[in-house]
Every structure is written in structure tokens, then in C-alpha cells.
Specification:
This protein has about 325 residues and is an alpha/beta fold. The chain contains 7 helices and 19 strands. Strand 7 and strand 8 form a beta hairpin. Helix 1 runs parallel beside helix 2 and helix 5 runs parallel beside helix 6. The longest helix is centred in the last third of the chain and has 21 residues. The structure holds NADPH dihydro-nicotinamide-adenine-dinucleotide phosphate (NDP).
Length: about 325
């Protein structure tokens, strides 16, 4: 068991975490970052990132996160491998337990950048075709499906937005909706239902995906369990999940104020949480945008907020 202490502990190693690492290192806060279960975050499972400014030719997600990491380490960020298993935010310095007690870190400020995890259906084929047709981010990967048929799973606002977005790129967009209605706002429903390129398949679930060299189609079932039940296939090259995200906040218990979806609530335009000295950046506090660039921007803001907090609180 070992103990470390820092002026700023960053939890999470995606774009928000590393950007916070760059800024807090350069501000001489001697930050420590806990890497988490999937170092590099969601971009590690992305293929090419083409919408992050500064990469005119695009860049592979894992390479981009290597670059973020190298830049942060260059300025002195220290990283600790492992997962946060417990936090004590009751007084400062805060105490964070790593891997059930193998290590303790004492921190004057904390930046939470633990991200959100896209929900999947749980089909074995989703893993099989991950990066080969299966994606949970149309904004990230839609461009690769220009003039090709795709499907979006889900009937909420995200699914409608993604279907709409993809309809400008793909040759055809199926929406696979398990109920007989869309849960999305009336406005988004109208846009989807009036879009000639989008075909909504109501009362439909996905049974499996197929394809020899990458994804070629989905095997679907309509009206499951009723007299009208039928199975059928659609030919698609892309299968986009849009059934929601789960913010990674479970380890914080009830210490932090969360919204009804479980995202951390921040105060006004700042990254401050309800606990003085604890800040939140990136997808874990952002149900709306969830982009690498917006996460990186809020990582910067959290670092500046932490620095100001330390100045004002005489640390
Ligand atoms: P939602 O929870 O609103 O919708 C999820 C959708 O996925 C629902 O249609 C749900 O079906 C479906 N779904 C969930 N699990 C499964 C499953 N296992 N199999 C098949 N379908 C499934 O999530 P969103 O990400 O769409 O939105 C999250 C929040 O963010 C919402 O409050 C939304 O309004 C908001 N948002 C706002 C936007 C805007 O204002 N521009 C843009 C995007 C999101 P069912 O209805 O049957 O449960």
C-alpha cells in the first residue's frame, strides 16, 4: 500500500482528462492522473477521427490519445494505472482509493473526467463487427458510409439526430425502433418521418448481424411474440447504436449532485460541482455534445477552475 499526494488529481484519461493534465502541469500543480479501466477512453475504440481540428488528414483514435498523453507527460503529468474504487469528498484534502486499497491519493482538488459509456444491445455480433461496421457515434464514423446503406438503433432524440445526420451521407438510413412510436421530441420525429432517405422500422428488434468481410446486413424481427411476428434481413454496411449513454459516476455514490440521467451537474458556466474543489469535465458532465473537442475544451476549463480555486483557497 502506498500514499501519494497532489494539488490536483485527475480521474479519467480521455480528451478531457489529458487536456486538464496539460494545463495543470503547465500551471505547476504537479497533477496526478488515474488512468481508469480503459486508458485513453472511448477514442481507443474509434477508428479514424477526422473532425478534431489540427489533423487535416485525420488520425486514428488510439494514436490521437497517444499524442494527448505524450503532450501531457512532456509537461510533467504523473499517471497511476488502475481504477478509483472509493472517494472521500467529506473534507480536504480529498482521499481517493485506488484498486480497493492498493494505493491512496490525497488531493487538494479533483477533476473528474470519467466519461460516459455508450450502451450496446449486448449481441455477440456487436463485438465481432466493432470498427468494421458497428459504431456508437454517427458524427465520428458516418463519413465512412457515404453512399452506402446504414441502420440506426433507437427511437430517442439521439437516434433521430444521428439518422438525420447520416441521411446526408448514406444512400439509405433504416431506423430500428423497438416500440410502435418514437420517443424523440415532436420536432425530431417530424424531421425523421418526413425525410425520404429514412425508413423507420417500428416494432422491430435486432437478432444478429452478418457479413463475410465486414458488416453486410442485419437479421431483424418485427412484432416479436405476437401473431404478426416475422423475421427479415436488411442489407447495411453500418450499424449505429443510439440507445443512450451511461455516465461513469457510480464510484462517486451520492457525494455529487447528478441530473436525472446521472450526469454530474456543474454550476453555471464553470466546471465546479456541488463540492468545493471538485470539478467535472467532458462527457461525464455533458449529456448534449459528447465530442472529443468539446471534452478537451471542458478539460481546459476544469484545469483553470482548479488553479483559481487553489489560488483563492491559499494552497
Ligand atoms: P433516450 O433514453 O431518450 O432514448 C433511447 C432510445 O433507445 C429509446 O427509443 C429506447 O427505446 C431505445 N432503446 C433503449 N434500449 C434499447 C434496446 N436495448 N433495444 C432497442 N432500443 C433501445 O436516449 P437519447 O440518447 O436519445 O437521449 C438522452 C437524453 O438526451 C434525452 O433526454 C434526449 O431528449 C436528450 N437529447 C436531446 C437532444 C436535443 O435536444 N438536441 C439531442 C440528443 C439527446 P424505448 O423508447 O422503447 O425505451
Amino acid at each position: 500500500m502506498s500514499e501519494l499526494s497532489t494539488k490536483c488529481l485527475i480521474i479519467g484519461s480521455g480528451p478531457a482528462g489529458y487536456t486538464a493534465g496539460i494545463y495543470t502541469s503547465r500551471a505547476n500543480l504537479s497533477p496526478i492522473m488515474v488512468d481508469g479501466r480503459q486508458p485513453g477512453g472511448q477514442l481507443i475504440t474509434t477508428t479514424d477521427v477526422e473532425n478534431f481540428p489540427g489533423y487535416p488528414e485525420g488520425i486514428a483514435g488510439p494514436q490521437m490519445m497517444e499524442d494527448f498523453r505524450a503532450q501531457a507527460l512532456r509537461f510533467g503529468l504523473k499517471t497511476v494505472s488502475g481504477e478509483v474504487s472509493e472517494v472521500d469528498f467529506s473534507k480536504r484534502p480529498f482521499i481517493v482509493t485506488i484498486n480497493g486499497g492498493s494505493q491512496y491519493i490525497m488531493a487538494d482538488t479533483i477533476i473528474i473526467a470519467t466519461g460516459a459509456t455508450a450502451k450496446y444491445l449486448g449481441l455477440p455480433d456487436e463485438q465481432k463487427y466493432m470498427g468494421l461496421g458497428v459504431s456508437a457515434c454517427a458524427t465520428c464514423d458516418g463519413f465512412f458510409y457515404r453512399n452506402r446503406p446504414v441502420a440506426v438503433v433507437g427511437g430517442g432524440d439521439t437516434a433521430c439526430e444521428e439518422a438525420e445526420y447520416l441521411s446526408h451521407l448514406a444512400s439509405k438510413v433504416y431506423m430500428i425502433v423497438r416500440k410502435d412510436y418514437l420517443r424523440a421530441s415532436k420536432y425530431m420525429q417530424k424531421r425523421v418521418l418526413e425525410n425520404d432517405k429514412i425508413e423507420v422500422l417500428f416494432n422491430t428488434n435486432t437478432l444478429s448481424l452478418f457479413g463475410e468481410n465486414g458488416l453486410e446486413g442485419a437479421h431483424l424481427i418485427r412484432h416479436r411474440g405476437s401473431e404478426m411476428e416475422e423475421e427479415f434481413d436488411i442489407a447495411i454496411d453500418g450499424f449505429f447504436l443510439a440507445i443512450g449513454h451511461t455516465p461513469n459516476t457510480a464510484i462517486f455514490g451520492d457525494a455529487l449532485t447528478l441530473d436525472e440521467q446521472g450526469y454530474i451537474v456543474t454550476q453555471g458556466k464553470s466546471t465546479a460541482t456541488n463540492i468545493a474543489g471538485v470539478f467535472a469535465a467532458g462527457d461525464v458532465a455533458d449529456p448534449s455534445y459528447q465530442q472529443a473537442i468539446s471534452a478537451a475544451g471542458s478539460g481546459c476549463r476544469a484545469a483553470l477552475d482548479a488553479e483559481r480555486f487553489l489560488m483563492l483557497n491559499d494552497n
